[in-house]
Amino acid sequence: MSKQGKRDFRPNIHFTPEKNWNNDPNGLIYIDGIWHLYYQHNPNDVVWGPMHWGHAVSKDLIHWEHLPVALYPDEIGTMYSGSMAYDENNTSGFAKYGEKPMVAVYTAHNMETGLEQQCIAYSLDQGKHFEKYYGNPVIENPGTPDFRDPRVFWNDKKDCWSLVLASGDHAEFYASQDLKNWKKTGEFGVGVNKVPTVWECTDLIRAKTGNEFDGFKWILIVSMIHPGTEGRANIQYFVGDFDGDTFQCTEITDEPLWIDFGFDNYAGVTYGNYDRPVYLGWGVNPLYANFVPTGEYSGLMTLPRELSLCETEEGYRLKTKPFGIDEYRAGAFPIGNQKPLLTESFGLLVQGNFGRIALKNSRGEEVVIEVTVDSITVDRSKSGDLSYFDDVDPKLFKKEDLLVSTTKRYMRGNVNMEIIFDVSYLEIYADGGLETASVCVYPDAPYQVVSTDGDLEVKMYTIKNRGYVYFGRFYKNDEKRDYRPKIHFSPEKGWMNDPNGMVYVDGVYHFFYQKYPYDTSWGPMHWGHATSRDLIHWEHQPIALYPDELGFIFSGSAVYDTQNSSEYGTNENPPIIAIYTSHHKDGLEQQSIAYSNDKGRHFEKSYLNPVIKNPGISDFRDPKAFWNPVRRCWSLVLAAQDRVFFYASQDMKNWEKTGEFGPEGNHVKGVWECPDLFPIEYEGKMCGFLLSA
User: Which among 24, 264, 379, 431 is annotated as catalytic?
Assistant: First the structure.
């Protein structure tokens, strides 16, 4: 199971989910300047589980905005991989008022029976919300296991929609006029596949060759896990032609053709509706993805890559190059054979015939890239934490097979290589992208030095983030930087101020806080919410309390009503009671309550609000409630101008004033806020302690 690493391994420029699990990219589509990324997602855990479709959007494929889950499991099954059609001509008939539907074509996987069938869902609001088609499944299972991962595209040859999907050890092709009714048109792979294993995540693309006579070729992409002696997960490709019904391979090879010779690039597919094939892959190996030390999240995507073909002495071979990063490269300067690193996100441009490049830290950990005239090798055997291998069934692979990988070069001479490193993910593009490697590494401390030998000439560039440079652990004095702390709580975005409602329930620390979610400056207050098990690592939760007719949600506190004195829960499921100040726009401040029966995730406001009405004063706010063991009742203290008032209640609903304190002895004149009263031990005795701002 994914575990917390010794440090934060989340990359800066590679997509990761906000939290929990992700794997295959799905539904990649480009519409009106927006790149949509859907992906396999378990929103409830950091390991693989019932699959949903997560959703994120970007304008540059580097900076991503996370959106709500797009597709949830249903009675047909969980949401396995698939693709997206932009139905501009409304061939599906799903449009109601002239919209252009986005139609998701996906595999529904029944977790109990294993039955896999193809279904569709449509969106009329640019992919934010989807409605599943009542006629699902649209392609029923013909009696085949591993029948999944449809890739849909418009077929110019037949003037229809076509799709390719994985069916056991081969691919099958289907056609439709309306995305609802499909007919099988062909298949490919039986007797051709060089690796006898199950196919997954098929994709069919058209790529330019650079040859004026050929123009372009079709490429069929297939992901496959082949445990055993090799114990690898790879993406194989075939070069050939598509006649509108099926694919034929024209580049016959003795050995499989791989997109990537690294360890951590799987299930990759393309944005098929863009004018060039732009690829994303899942940047973790499925053989050990459940066990990597990334903590609150698991999984990432490769950098986007543009695919094309290059004619070599052995035939056409696929080339990949980074796509979308050009504008974020911040100059390149030559380095010597021992260069200190000032950032955890950087690139290296390499020229030469032979030599080694090593990224190292002070703990003796390193990842090494070695170049010869004939080959390129990447070695992560000493790269850092490798303990996650120990959690995997040894029958799946030999550990040593996933530590060092070598590929032959299709070109001789100058290597012309780009290396991009991003905190915990390494990408290598050699010989113009003919040899590509993707590798996860988890060093215990950031790599601090890049060393080189041989005849290699190396230039380094940093990677900008919309005007400033990522500098990980170390920074230049003259450049702007990210000031977000690593171990102090901060909101995901927007404004926050006072901590509120801090309560500890069943091993979980609940932290509510003053929040304005729509801007980074103060505004109409809500209660934000986060939870933690150690007060260092926080999981952001949905907003707990929103403004209402009584006013904004100012500061307050929360109690765990274990005896259900409020009668808002049960003895078996005690409620959490929030008591807070309602601040009306005219300045009137009163105290209100809300209750939660699901451990603080959702709150219902009491119809009795306000439970403590304003006695006719300004600055009447910030109630701190607590159980009073002396009087055996609930008590609270709140700020009342230049003093505090005390109240008591048996049920959190009906309150009686019991006293006040101040301003006698107060050495600072002014309005009091946010009082707190708690016992503290001194020389073996319990004493009361009052704090007030």
Answer: 24
